[in-house]
TrEMBL record, chain A:
This is Amino acid ABC transporter permease. Coiled coil: none annotated. The keyword Transmembrane helix applies. It comes from Shinella lacus. InterPro entries: AA_ABC_transptr_permease_3TM, ArtM/GltK/GlnP/TcyL/YhdX-like, MetI-like, MetI-like_sf.
TrEMBL record, chain B:
Pfam families: SBP_bac_3. This is Amino acid ABC transporter substrate-binding protein. Keywords: Signal, Transport. Residues 1-23 form the signal peptide. It comes from Shinella lacus. The lineage of its organism: Bacteria, Pseudomonadati, Pseudomonadota, Alphaproteobacteria, Hyphomicrobiales.
């Protein structure tokens, strides 16, 4: 039935050559369009030439700060020499295979978990029982003969990933629970959820991080300190959950109330209706804004530098200030940071489009 | 699911609480932990900055190492915690770090109100101004209606305002958020002058295309004595920090260096014998090993060596000793007698 309708509505296909000409005429059809197109192409070529000249032709590929200082191009020896520090920060040099393994394990596990075919209860159990503990032991050590490394020495890319990945993974279920609570019929629960969400959303992330790292320890009993990383992590989880809750609520409102009632009339329990009928439809609808939020949070974790955690952007910044390279390799350092953040944000964006495609269902 | 998450969170929190400091004295805590936790700056070349291997190097870092050497006999038993301007005092108050060695100016209000005490001044700094030689100015008083680049920070901007108000001068303050922008703005001619601590000006000047084109003006418009800080009401720990620093200075005075410290153990000089623990039992009085003095010098060298290695004329910063010379060489570095 659906197929017949689609066919009936589809416009007649133009001949291939006419189609190609039609595309070209959009750019060169009128004198005005032609001028704009030519100018745009010229600008693009000019920028490419500039970038290529700076990145490759005039660039320095070996040498030190002095050789870079006299050349007009990019300074790649800086990146080569500092890359390991930028990636892993203060993690003990001899032990840096551990954060590297942890990162690769995290990427691998995420890669597998991104394939819908592998989604199962077993995978969830594997994350909680195997993957996360292994990541923690790799980073912190203290077991199996690994030297203990305090969290104050963690830094660079593993720290950024830990904060954003663990933060968002734990914020997701919390956010869903908050969204359900906000839609609840029980006034006490609803008021609590609304209060939490509105307070958290009414305050910038920076001030919550400040509260967690600067104020909280002053209220603790003498001599008891909670690890700074844990404090920042909890702050990020709470903050993200409020935003996730609002996005999920949007999805929930879009599910017709008849779906809920139908489930109930089949004799399903509230949680069964939610888990099997309402949430799958609601979450599917909010994939694009959710991934947008995730990308934003991945980049927002750079704010933890304010409270003295050394994330990837911070290690890049401090590498730039090495006296050997100071004032010479500023742009190169930021380019490395931009490339890394762009790569992972783009991957998330691509995955979001894949998921939308995967879950596309027609209601004909 | 939620239950599992809660359990994980609790486990993470529990772990770190279990590893937290007890309410005992700092020395006992440090000894039990087996490491000194020292708050430093993240990226201030010459004072504390990571090398290519992520190892902290610099003057402030070496002060930490000297304290670790006094306590453990090994200057490498330090965990460096990068702190920033916003979190440094709180990190000390909450017990997250044992000592703060982060270019921190010893001032009245910090001493009186922040629940911390300062050790001896390790570096005498002061705010200065740098201009291009081509400007033809030889004194800050000759600057009229100049644009002055600076970083945001209450004292730097306030000092420069106070200075020009006192001489009835006019100026325009141009504030930049990052040191890189600040420096670039000055070198591109956006400002006639740039102001910061003199040690910082030296490092800014060092990266100029031609450092000889720039001159740091003679006026020092503020006093910035930089000192390590520790929690107040812990005299024993305060003594250990202070005397570790003073020992560096006394060792320079007595000509004890990292290289000759083994020979000096056999020295006939009673002062040297006491400092290195060859006679008497000074270390025991602080609750330390009697060889604490020997260990400090063996680990980092004397004050002069620490200065020259990190800030001196052989480094990119190229600072002269100036007020940081020994008292008997015209400077302000003076250690009480170690006896």
């Amino acid at each position: 039935m659906a197929d017949v309708q689609m066919l009936a509505l589809a416009p007649p296909q133009p001949a291939p050559t006419a189609q190609r000409l039609g595309k070209l005429s959009a750019y060169f059809g009128t004198p005005g369009n032609t001028i704009i197109s030519v100018a745009s192409i010229a600008i693009i070529l000019f920028v490419i030439k500039l970038a290529f000249g700076w990145l490759v032709v005039d660039a320095v590929f070996s040498g030190n700060g002095e050789t870079c200082k006299v050349s007009g191009g990019a300074c790649w020896p800086f990146v080569a020499q500092k890359l390991r520090y930028m990636l892993f920060g203060f993690y003990p040099y001899e032990e840096q295979w551990r954060p590297l393994t942890a990162l690769l394990l995290l990427f691998g596990a995420c890669g597998v978990s991104m394939v819908p075919r592998f989604w199962s209860r077993a995978l969830l159990v594997a994350w909680i029982v195997v993957i996360l503990p292994v990541l923690y032991i790799l980073m912190a050590g203290g077991l199996f003969g690994l030297t203990p490394v305090p969290t104050t020495s963690w830094g660079g890319l593993p720290l950024s990933f830990l904060l954003s990945f663990i933060g968002l993974t734990l914020a997701m279920p919390l956010g869903i629970v908050l969204a359900l609570a906000r839609a609840s019929n029980l006034p006490a629960i609803r008021v609590l959820a609304v209060g939490f969400i509105e307070i958290v959303r009414g305050v910038p992330l920076i001030s919550i991080l400040f509260m967690a790292t600067v104020m909280l320890p002053l209220f603790m009993p003498d001599g008891v300190t909670i690890d700074k990383l844990v404090r920042a992590q909890v702050a990020i989880i709470l903050f993200a959950s409020a935003y996730i809750a609002e996005i999920v609520r949007g999805g929930l409102q879009d599910v017709p109330v008849g779906q809920f009632e139908a489930g109930k009339s089949l004799g399903l329990h509230y949680w069964q209706v939610m888990r099997k009928i309402v949430l799958p439809q609601a979450l599917k609808k909010v994939i694009p804004p959710m991934v947008g939020l995730f990308i934003g949070f991945f980049q927002d974790t750079t704010l933890v530098t304010i409270v003295g955690l050394v994330d990837f952007l911070d290690t890049v910044r401090s590498a730039i200030r090495d006296p050997e390279w100071q004032g010479i390799a500023v742009l190169e350092g930021y380019l490395v940071a931009a490339a890394v953040y762009f790569t992972f944000s783009a991957l998330m964006g691509a995955y979001s489009r894949f998921l939308e495609q995967h879950f596309r269902t027609t209601h004909a | 699911m939620k239950q599992a998450l809660l359990t994980i969170c609790a486990a993470a929190l529990g772990l770190s609480v279990a590893g937290a400091a007890s309410a005992a004295g700092t020395l006992e805590t440090v000894k039990a932990r087996g490491k000194l936790v020292c708050g430093v700056s993240l990226a201030t070349p010459g004072f504390a900055a990571p090398d290519d291997k992520g190892r902290m190097q610099g003057f402030d870092a070496d002060i930490c190492r000297s304290i670790a050497a006094a306590v453990f006999g090994d200057g490498d038993k330090v965990d460096f915690v990068p702190t920033n301007i916003n979190t440094r005092f709180q990190a000390l108050q909450s017990g997250e770090i044992d000592v703060l060695s982060r270019q921190t100016t010893h001032t009245f209000s910090r001493d009186a109100s922040l629940g911390l005490d300062f050790g001896p001044t390790v570096f005498y700094d002061g705010q200065g101004l740098m201009v291009a030689k081509s400007l033809g100015v030889s004194s800050a008083k000759e600057l009229t209606e100049a644009a002055i680049c600076t970083l945001p920070g209450t004292t730097t901007a306030q000092n420069i305002s106070d200075f020009f108000r006192a001489i009835n001068g006019k100026f325009e303050l141009v504030v930049f958020e990052s040191p890189d922008e600040n420096r670039a703005a000055f070198y591109s001619g956006r400002c006639e002058a740039i102001t910061s601590d003199r040690s910082d000006l030296a490092s800014i000047r060092a990266v100029a295309n031609n450092p000889d084109d720039y001159i740091v003006l003679p006026e020092t418009i503020s006093k910035e004595p930089l000192a390590p800080a520790f929690r107040q009401n812990d005299s024993n720990w305060g003594d250990i920090v202070s005397w570790s620093v003073w020992l560096l200075m006394a060792a320079e005075e007595k000509g004890i260096t990292q290289a000759n410290v083994d020979e000096k153990l056999k020295s006939e000089d009673p002062d040297v014998q006491r400092m290195l623990g060859a006679t008497e039992e000074l270390g025991k009085m602080l609750g330390l090993d009697n060889k604490w003095g020997y260990n400090v010098i063996k680990s980092v060298g004397n004050y002069g060596e620490v200065f020259e290695r990190n800030l001196g004329e052989g480094t990119k910063l190229g600072l002269t000793r100036g007020p940081n010379a020994l008292w008997n060489a015209g400077g302000l570095i003076y250690s009480p007698p170690i006896r």
